[in-house]
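Below is just one:
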Amino acid sequence: MASEDAVGKTEESAAVSTIVNLAEEAKDFGEGVKAPNPAFLTISKSLVAGGVAGGLSRTAVAPLERLKILLQVQNPHSIKYNGTVQGLKYIWRIEGFRGLFKGNGTNCARIVPNSAVKFFSYEEASKRILLIYRQQTGNEDAELTPLLRLGAGACAGIIAMSATYPMDMVRGRLTVQTDKSLTQYRGIFHALRTVFVEEGPRALYKGWLPSVIGVVPYVGLNFAVYESLKDWLIKSKPFGLVEDSELSVTTKLACGAAAGTVGQTVAYPLDVIRRRMQMVGWKDAASVVTGDGKTRAPLEYTGMVDAFRKTVRHEGFGALYKGLVPNSVKVVPSIAIAFVTYELVKDILGVEMRISD
């Protein structure tokens, strides 16, 4: 019995020892697990803020976005859309309420990551450009000039555009297709796969060059005008708009509207050419009905310069600004909402770093 008791005590002691060791190991493991890196959290929150800003701003103006694209690719011999109001009424009558938002799901699927990357890339590019600028000038208190902000915005736009361009390409086709189109893209991924198989991988980047060239002044001017205008208002405090170095939401919306108007006016012709190049090779856009009822093949473009030349030759210089009115009406609230939403979401998420910082 004594030996059995001894064995029992030994086993009990061993069990207790094992439990203690496991507890200590668990404690050590818990202490070894590090909390999320603050920089990682800041980056994640910044990306989330940019994505929310992009999705909300584009959904708010989705009907105008679709009408703009339809006007851009509309054949001059078969005009269906004569203006903003008439165009929206026509879409409503033919396709109903859902027709106004056709392609918006694809647009948001593209613009959410695009906007997230764009805002984050701008902040990172701004920090690095500012660091180099201060080193070159020897002034540790130097701030970004409008030209440097333009450069940072251009870098951000190129990175974001290139990363999400195939989504933009198929979004254009989804927006243009109707119930009568021979090929029906069922969604984003079906369109991506169909274009890839039928037209080749390079087709996913049709119109990329004018897009990149256009995004330099567009995104660059958006950020440069928005930030510079905010700085000017804070420093000069005109008309009593600024109190305690903080702009109101209304004033920020006005700054965003001004930025969007300047950017899109400069870059719009490149956007028209991009859309037209994206339609090349799509068999549902391979023929159009002219005014006399005959079928005519649309123009084929060998490149960006050729697209510019043929568009101006056959339709006049004004063709480069087709859809500008609905786009202008769209851009003002869209860019304004995007900038303000981005800053508000970052405030909600507790990210102290602002674009200006």
Summary: The chain has two domains: 1-33, 34-349. The chain is about 70% helix and 0% strand. Residues 34-349 form a domain with the Mitochondrial carrier fold fold (CATH 1.50.40.10). Residues 78 and 293 are 9 Å apart (CA to CA).
